[in-house]
Design a protein that fits this description.
Number of strands: 7
Order of helices and strands: EHEEEEHEHE
Distance between the termini: 21 Å
Strand order of the largest sheet: 1-2-7-6
Structural class: alpha/beta
Number of domains: 1
Amino acid sequence: MSYGDNSVSSASLQCAYELFIRDGDIKLIRELGRILKKGGKVVICPLYMRTDYSGFSGPSYYFKKEYHAVGAKVYLAHRNTLDVPFSRSYDVKRLKERVLDTAKANQLDFNLYVLRNGKEIGPNVYCHFVLEIMKE
C-alpha cells in the first residue's frame, strides 16, 4: 500500500476480505501492522467462517487454481452468485494460523465478535462474525 508507516487511524472492509486471493489475506494483515497508527483500528465485516477451510469460485475461475487458497476445499459457486475468482471461508485452525497469529506477529491485537441475533436486525442479515483489529 502507498500509505506511510503509522499513518492510518481507521479502516473497514465490508464483504471484501473474503475475496483476497491466495495469500492476500495474510499480506493485508502484515500491511495493517505497518500502516496503522497506535490506537488505530480496522473492522472486517463479515468474517466468513465454516467448519472446513474452503471457498467458492465462479464458473469462469473454478479450474484456475492460481486464484484458490492453498489447502482450501473449493466449491463451485452456483450460477445465481457472482462469478468471482475465490471467496474464502476460514475454519478455526486457518483463522488462527493465517490471520490471528499474523496479527500478533505484527504487533496487532484483535477481538472476534459473534452476531447471534442477526435475524432480529433483518431477514437478510448474513453476518455471523466480525473481526476487529487494533494497534495498541
